[in-house]
Every structure is written in C-alpha cells, then in structure tokens.
Write a structure and sequence with these properties.
107 residues, alpha+beta, 4-stranded mixed beta sheet, two-stranded antiparallel sheet, 2 helices
Amino acid sequence: LYLTPRCFPSSPTEYPTRLDIAVEVVSEGPEARHRDYIAKRSDYEAGGVNEYWIVDPFDRTVTVLELSNGEYKELGVFREGETARGVFLSGFELPVTDVMRFVDEVS
C-alpha cells in the first residue's frame, strides 16, 4: 500500500480512509485468482485507489491498472525482462524479473 500525506490517518491508531496505490500478490488457486483479478479490482475501483498493481507469480506478470473516470484502465501487463511502470508516482518503476525473484524467495 502507498499513501500520500493527504491519505494519512489523523492518529497512529486509526486506519487510512483512502489508498493511492495497492499491490496484491496472487495466491495459488482459482478462488485466489478471482479475488485478486476481479473482486479486489472492483473493491479498489469503488474505493478510489489510483493504481492497482497485480503481481502474478504463476503467469510471471505484473499488471498495472490506473483509475480513470471511476474505472480501471490497463496501463500494461509486464513480463520478465520488462519494467513495470505506473503513472501515479512519476519515475517509479520495477523490473519484473527482480519482482519475481523476490516473490520466489519469500514463497
């Protein structure tokens, strides 16, 4: 999760009321795929999350979605050897090969 200062809760014991970027790593199984690709996408879209990044260690991809006029549009599906980029954080990019290496290490 990424929060800009405008999204910070007023107290350290409270949760933020808004997110700027959400990143989910897809878990194994069809229910998990549905949850990350469909259900959470819909939830984050409705919640106004500016970007949603889906890291899929099974397809070896990073999908980046941008909220535009209340709906997500796909900025790209990035594969190993490519660099995933969004638009919300100018200059922020992640080499997909490095992301997958990290996911493999922690799995």
